[in-house]
């Protein structure tokens, strides 16, 4: 593997600021981001990528590749929670297994954005409709995770939860709602709307991403000590699962005939884990599950692994397979 790819990814400003945030915690600096700002950054990133995705979707049209990619995205979002659930059940109880499985069936928008930045730096093109795949992979994992609880709960009373609340959280939580809404608006307004909003959705995008990753570094470092409580099983799971899912994603991308840029984004979506939408849903609908397990595994281990090693590694695999 070309170590230059890893170096190129690590030395990009957003990733370096992620490590700066971690370093601030380790050195006990008083650096902190005022709490309303990370939420604003998160909303901005979702709006910007959704809007751009809608515009690009109109530009590219609905081809066979687009349809197959979106179907593959939904399929992976449904299958990953199922197979990971049975692996997790070996060591964990029903609720924690379902919550972590749902977390790994869903996606990380920030990892997706970082992969897009990586491709831009390498000059590798990718299609805007991949944002639609991202949006479609947010919710199915939540529903599948809760279905697994419903099916495997020994005591029916334990599995009694409000389906209206589950569906509301899966489809109307703020991140999914804003992302899909921005995608639709971008598609409706097309090229004219994109030019009008470009100074807001394009020019300042990487600056906001950099600030957001600085905050992610602070949060990840603050939670990393929780990994010691999970033992080697969950730590191994947090590293091996992205590798397996990325490999499946790359094979599917090859079968569909995606270009290399799209294949990397698809494999990154398959390999990433949610630390925003799914934890929000799990805290509401599965209070029995321990948030320090599913949030820490996704945020403190899988997320850094993907942005440091995973993204260049997946691209290396794609380049080998596409030759």
TrEMBL record:
For whether the record's keyword set contains Amino-acid biosynthesis, the answer is no
Give the record's keywords alphabetically: Membrane, Transmembrane, Transmembrane helix
Q: Which InterPro entries does the UniProt record give?
A: Sbt_1
| Lineage: superkingdom | Bacteria
Where are the membrane-spanning stretches? 6-25, 37-54, 66-88, 95-120, 126-149, 170-189, 204-222, 234-257, 263-281, 293-316
| A matching Pfam family | Sbt_1
Name this protein carries in UniProt: Sodium-dependent bicarbonate transport family permease
Q: Which species is listed as the source?
A: Gloeocapsopsis dulcis AAB1 = 1H9
């Amino acid at each position: 593997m070309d170590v230059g790819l890893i170096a190129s990814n690590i030395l990009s400003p957003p990733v370096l600021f992620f490590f700066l945030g971690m370093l601030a915690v380790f050195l006990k600096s008083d650096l902190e981001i005022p709490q309303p700002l990370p939420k604003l950054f998160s909303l901005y990133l979702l709006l910007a990528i959704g809007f751009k995705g809608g515009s690009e979707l109109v530009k590219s049209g609905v081809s066979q590749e687009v349809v197959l990619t979106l179907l593959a995205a939904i399929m992976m979002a449904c299958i990953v929670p199922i197979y990971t659930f049975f692996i997790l059940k070996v060591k964990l109880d029903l609720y924690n297994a379902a919550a972590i499985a749902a977390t790994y069936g869903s996606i990380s928008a920030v990892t997706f954005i970082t992969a897009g930045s990586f491709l831009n730096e390498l000059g590798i093109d990718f299609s805007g409709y991949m944002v639609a795949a991202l949006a479609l992979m947010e919710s199915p994992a939540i529903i599948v995770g809760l279905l697994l609880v419903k099916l495997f709960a020994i005591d029916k009373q334990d599995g009694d939860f409000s389906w209206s609340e589950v569906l509301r959280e899966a489809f109307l939580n703020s991140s999914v709602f804003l992302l899909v809404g921005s995608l639709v608006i971008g598609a409706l307004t097309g090229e004219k709307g994109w030019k009008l909003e470009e100074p807001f959705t394009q020019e300042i995008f990487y600056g906001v991403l950099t600030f957001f990753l600085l905050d992610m570094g602070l949060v990840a470092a603050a939670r990393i000590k929780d990994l010691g409580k999970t033992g080697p099983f969950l730590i191994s799971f947090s590293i091996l699962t992205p590798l397996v899912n990325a490999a499946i994603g790359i094979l599917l991308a090859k079968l569909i005939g995606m270009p290399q840029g799209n294949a990397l984004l698809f494999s990154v979506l398959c390999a990433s884990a949610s630390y925003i939408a799914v934890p929000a849903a799990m805290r509401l609908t599965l209070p029995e599950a321990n948030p320090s397990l599913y949030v820490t595994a996704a945020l403190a281990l899988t997320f850094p692994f993907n942005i440091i090693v995973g993204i260049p590694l997946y691209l290396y695999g794609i380049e080998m397979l596409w030759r």
